[in-house]
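Quick one: structure tokens for this chain, please?
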Amino acid sequence: MIELSNTDRVKSSPAIRPLAAGEHSVAGPVAAIVCLLSLLLPAVSSAVDPFYERLKEDGIQAYTRGDYESAAVDLRFACFGMLDEPRVLAQCLVFLALSQAEVGDTEALNHTFDRISEVEKGFEALSQLDLSTELRRSLEEHLKRSIPYDRLRRLPAFHDVARQQLEEQIRVMPSEQRRVELMLRMESEPEYSTWQVLLAELDFEDGDYPTALATTEAVLLREPGRQVALCLRGKLGARAGMCDQALVDLDQCSESESQSELDLARLRCQISLGDWDAAELLLSALSNSEIRAPTLRQLAREIKRGRKADVEAAAEVEAGDVATLDAAAEVLVKLSVNEAEALASDTQPPSSVEVEDSAATSSEAAVPESETVDPIETEIERITNLLQVGSRKDLESILTEAHRFADENPGRTEVQLLAAEIAYRLSRWAAAITYFDRAGVFETGRPEHQFYLAVSLYESGDHVTAQEMLRRCLPQLEQTDFVQAYSQRIKSGGN
């Protein structure tokens, strides 16, 4: 059996075969009328010519086995014979477009898209087509890469594809251009929350965490289960130390999210909560190249310091308990001795020396405690001890109390510095700036506090002031890895 080429098959089709030499068509007026009606009237039969149906099936089979060139040829001829059957034609055009895309014939794909648009506008044939999820996704991906946005968005069936294409283009724009484009899109499509999410992501990149969080919360208010917004709120919460909710949100992140960013956010939270075991387990799962990054090296040092502080604190508590028991035993012994002495002295009058000693003791006891002990100093000492040995969880619990204490004593510099340092350690940048400023760090603060303020300003997005503060304090600082790494970030201005 001789296999016909595509061209031979088209030539042999009874629907389009030219007359052979000497062959005559039906003669006479009747034939002319029949011929004219066949041109003017639509086809009565809805069946596709079997020849074109076979071509279409051959083309689909060629596409399925990866022979895209043969598929494109067969399907191009097949689609010409299906103009009266929109749904069948739509299926043919979809496989033709996919085949042309696979062979890289962008010009032909654009022409085929025009024909798909006509069938969709006139009959919604594409919308009604029962395509598999894989085929539809493949078609959309090819169209995103090859068809301009303005042409895609004209067709309702491809509105989402057009938006996805534009979203991908916006993501790679420079920061300022991206912001302008997103503001324009939000004005033209306020109901499409993806533009708000992208703007929140941009604010997150720029270090404006409060604005990013407010925008993200607005999206979640309208769409409580929006996965990308939940994930972004998780990363923001990790930055702000709101880790109970942040860890729940981070578990909502899809596999498309950057795994390194998610690991970093989870690590921040585990450190903030003082969960050193979980933090070390996550750190051990990272690659060597990831662990060598300055941020992760700093977090690794924080884990080590935190675990050491917890061990020392536990040892101090244990030692304190033993000392308390010893002191209590000593008091009991003294009480027993005093009772015996008191019984012996009941029969003797007190001497003048004893009377004077008793008066002096009474006088000392009469002095109010408030005149001998400064309650503010006592509170400062308590918070200072907690700051030195307490875990992140301890700091969370005392944060509100420390800030209230600072607000009640605005004139006490040491109180403001304590509140600022707690806020800094918990990444509450705005609060840290407020209390460092109130303490006068801009003029008289110690170099380490000036550096903490520079970091807080940088993380809050005020890169210019952060650079100025760094310039003033850097020469006086010990050049640790953390100081050097963060100094480079501040000098770069976030670029």
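DSSP finds 28 helices and no strands in the chain.
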